[in-house]
Design a protein that fits this description.
The protein has 145 residues and is of the alpha+beta class. It has one domain: Nuclear Transport Factor 2, Chain: A (Roll). The protein has 5 helices and 4 strands, in the order ααββββααα. A hairpin with a 2-residue loop joins strand 3 and strand 4.
Length: 145
């Protein structure tokens, strides 16, 4: 996430991320199939929110691996509820490009903020997590971004 905490705008974040992605056929976790899908995910994420703020925290990298902690603060548009999501990223690099990237965060904490009572009561359950993942996948599929 270079530049995100240094005044990066919501249009710069996907552009910079895409610049770091590996070749167009690179496979990414969570059904992000290559650079185009990663770019689509970023455009969808930042395009749905008028108030998203992404701050890069602790981060480290060498030629092969990198880690980063980042905080995304935004209004979850489906419910209008405020969210502060703490995300830990782990990346693998090859030839100066990202070839693998996995984000992790506390889904129950996120669901309590984003969904309110349903997240509080069911955020721990695989059922709710699968439902949110399916809705997110559908949103990306439907996105024209």
């Amino acid at each position: 996430m270079p530049g995100v905490d240094a005044g990066g705008t919501k249009t710069e974040v996907p552009r910079m991320t895409g610049d770091l992605c590996a070749k167009p056929d690179q496979q990414f976790p969570l059904s992000f199939d290559g650079k185009d899908e990663v770019m689509k995910m970023w455009r969808t994420l930042v395009g749905r929110s008028d108030d998203i703020n992404i701050v890069l925290g602790d981060h480290a990298a060498d030629d092969r691996r990198g880690t980063a902690h980042w905080t995304a603060t935004y209004t979850f548009t489906t419910t209008g509820r405020p969210v502060v999501n703490e995300i830990d990223a782990a990346m693998i690099f090859r030839d100066g490009l990202i070839v693998d990237h996995k984000d992790s965060f506390d889904f129950w904490k996120w669901s309590r903020q984003a969904l309110g009572a349903p997240g509080l009561l069911l955020g721990w359950s695989p059922m709710l997590k699968k439902k949110v993942q399916a809705q997110s996948a559908q949103l990306l599929q439907d996105s024209t971004a």
